[in-house]
Amino acid sequence: MPAHSNCDHEHDHPPAATGAPQSESKSDHGHSHNHFDVRLQSRKKLAAVLALTSSFMIVEAVAGFYTGSLALIADAGHMLGDVAALALALFAVWLSSKPAGPSRTYGFHRSEILAALANSVLLVVISVAILFEAIHRFSEPPVIHSNGMLIVAVLGLLVNLFAMKLLGGHGDSLNARAAYLEVFSDMLASCAVIVAGLIIAFTGWYLADPILSAILSVFIVARTWGLLKESVDILMESAPRNINIDALTQSLLAVEGVSEVHDLHVWTITSGMLAMSCHLTVAAVSNSESVLNQVNSVIRRDFKITHTTIQLESADSERKCNDVCAVL
Questions:
Q1: Cα–Cα distances in angstroms (integers) from residue 58 to residues 75, 76, 287, in the given order
Q2: Full set of structural domains in the chain with CATH
């Protein structure tokens, strides 16, 4: 039986008083509180990391220009990206906590996904810029003061490790994962600066600085690509990666009274909040309320989908393109 229909339809919905077989299942009160608590904790952690990162970014940028180290400047550049990303993530957490309204029925949840997308793009742009500068320095590597470079790099590593510990419990939030990835990339940058500083101190080989900077930039772009793709998938309302549409269809068909599934759509509103809509063809004698309860129970239990819109249609109705769907 088809799981999707390519036809556009209008739906004739009976008044609520008649017991229309259209179901809206939203997350319960406890689930809402859980989202609020997570956002509140995330907000505090992001604020602390933002203050810490902003302060050390200035120190590292000054030290990078003083020592002539591209690796330090690259790390400061990544930290600048962190500051922008963390500020954006913090704003998104605040915005997503605002209640829904008549013009935004889902509220501002998608702001977290937009922030994750913007952070991913920013990190890629900074990494590519550092890569081009590193390539330029291959021909004329400048003299670098390795001692100052090492001291600042070690301090940067400690700052980033502490920030990672604060952001470690990011859970399923794509926004928090993006912020964590920003700090993680800076931790790797600090490690690269330390390695480059040690090579320069013991061998005087200044090319170590741009080479490690270039390797680091490529690595960060590779890690960020997955997050960037996931953000775009959510904004394009693609089916979540952890949802098997065929398995979901078979689970719906297994519910007693359901004979066909069509117009099935599953998408992500924001991290950890999945939504589904579909039409189910049922026997005219079926108990519509029982069918809806069973369907919602199955998809909550097996697929963690908490927001549903389900329309039941009579099995003996004719359903053609551009026809009005008959509703029980």
A1: 11, 8, 67
A2: 10-27+239-325 (3.30.70.1350), 29-235 (1.20.1510.10)
Over pLDDT 90: what percentage of the chain? 9
Q: Which residues contact 165 (CB under 8 A, 6 or more apart)?
A: none
pLDDT tens digits for 259-273? Answer: 899 899 999 887 778
- The full length of the chain comes to 328
Instruction: Check whether 90 has a pLDDT greater than 80.
Output: no
Degrees, nearest 5: CA angle 158-161-166: 125
Task: Calculate mean pLDDT across residues 115-135.
Answer: 82
Q: Distance of CA 216 to CAs 40, 71, 139, 160, Å? A: 33, 9, 19, 16
Neighbours of 292 (CB within 10 A): 20
- Between 156 and 72, name the one with better pLDDT: 156
**Alpha-carbon distance values, 200 to 62, 70, 73, 150 (Å):** 20, 13, 16, 10
